[in-house]
Design brief:
The protein is of the alpha/beta class. 48% of the residues lie in helices and 8% in strands. A five-stranded mixed β-sheet has the order 1-2-3-4-5.
């Protein structure tokens, strides 16, 4: 992993003083009062190279301005039934905090279907959660725990993962690309739990393709991962699918436990916050329906290589095991 020197930080700071005012304004929304930490994140994402880090950050700032990302938390997804359907098919939520104060995000990879709305809605929802994390959750955690907190932990539940999930690779690649190019170094560790055999096959393919910086953050835990996760967080912060080892589908009946549900306090607070921000900016008139169309940055080489390789290798796996299913007909557009 690259070592970020003070000289590189100083050079980066000087270069950022030269950017136009609109970019400076959106940069303030990114750094939330901690500009140096933000510059370090972008430097780490580009191996300490100031020139490459500057280009990455400027591209990010332009993307934010062009797509009005600063205002995305004032654009509710309506009607509420549509937003509920998105929450039920894009499984993500805040289950608690680690002992160090890092937010713990649970993600139901295997049971997310992404089939209740257009790609634009899922991308909008994902960015809104990112922005709420960075503008509300992390600053609140910093205040509560008395130290600067800028990263989170993510726990991926692979319960229900099937080869047919290959049909979601394009959307997942879009989301991953947005995160890598615009929200770098925001996750300290990725924990993988409840992994079926098909994940093992996928991981063998993907792991060598990942950058070392990413690969070292991934921990594949045995079973539901409860014992390992309890080393970094209390039981009350464990995602429900780690508490009893039965997977995310077994806990949907308990809304307080199921952090994926719109009825969970995290999502209630997030949705209320977005509607309040809309009311501040648009005090008169109904909320307009329709998704926010965000330009997707050109996929990073790493993401596209992974997607193409995964498609090819899993199709081989499909045929070698005598399976004739959705993969036979699947065609992924990599444009």
């Amino acid at each position: 992993m690259a070592i970020v020197t003070q000289d590189a930080i100083d050079q980066f700071k000087a270069l950022m003083e030269e950017v136009d005012e609109p970019l400076k304004r959106t940069f303030q929304n990114i750094h939330q009062g901690c500009p140096t930490e933000t510059l370090v994140r972008f430097l780490k994402a580009r191996e300490g190279n100031v020139t490459k880090a500057r280009k990455m950050l400027l591209d990010c700032l332009k993307w934010r301005v062009d797509n009005e990302i600063d205002d995305i938390l004032a654009k509710p997804i309506v009607p509420a039934d549509l937003y509920r359907a998105i929450r039920d098919s894009q499984l993500i939520g805040l289950s608690g905090y680690s002992r160090e104060g890092l937010p713990v995000f649970a993600i139901g990879v295997g049971l997310s279907t992404f089939d209740k709305a257009s790609v634009h809605y899922y991308v909008q929802s994902h960015i809104q959660i990112n922005e709420y994390r960075d503008r509300v959750i992390l600053p609140s955690a910093t205040k509560k725990y008395g130290r600067h907190i800028s990263k989170c932990l993510k726990v991926f539940d692979m319960t229900g993962l099937k080869l047919s999930a290959l049909s979601q690779i394009k959307l997942l690649t879009i989301i991953s690309t947005i995160d890598d190019l615009n929200y770098p170094e925001k996750t300290l560790t990725y924990y993988i739990v409840n992994a079926p055999y098909v994940f093992s096959a996928c991981w063998k393919i993907v792991k060598p393709l990942l950058h070392e910086r990413t690969r070292t953050k991934v921990q594949v835990l045995a079973g539901c991962g409860r014992d390992d996760l309890l080393k970094v967080m209390d039981y009350t912060s464990l995602p429900s699918f780690c508490q009893k080892g039965s997977g995310s589908s077994q806990h949907l009946e308990n809304l307080m436990e199921n952090c994926f549900s719109l009825d969970h306090p995290f999502h209630q607070q997030l949705y209320t916050y977005i509607k309040e921000q809309f009311s501040i900016g648009q005090p008169v008139g109904p909320i307009r329906q329709g998704s926010v169309h965000v330009d997707v940055p050109n996929s990073a080489v790493e993401e596209m290589d992974i997607a193409k390789t995964l498609e090819s290798e899993l199709q081989k796996f499909d045929y070698e095991n005598g399976i004739r299913g959705p993969l036979d007909k699947l065609k992924i557009n990599h444009d």
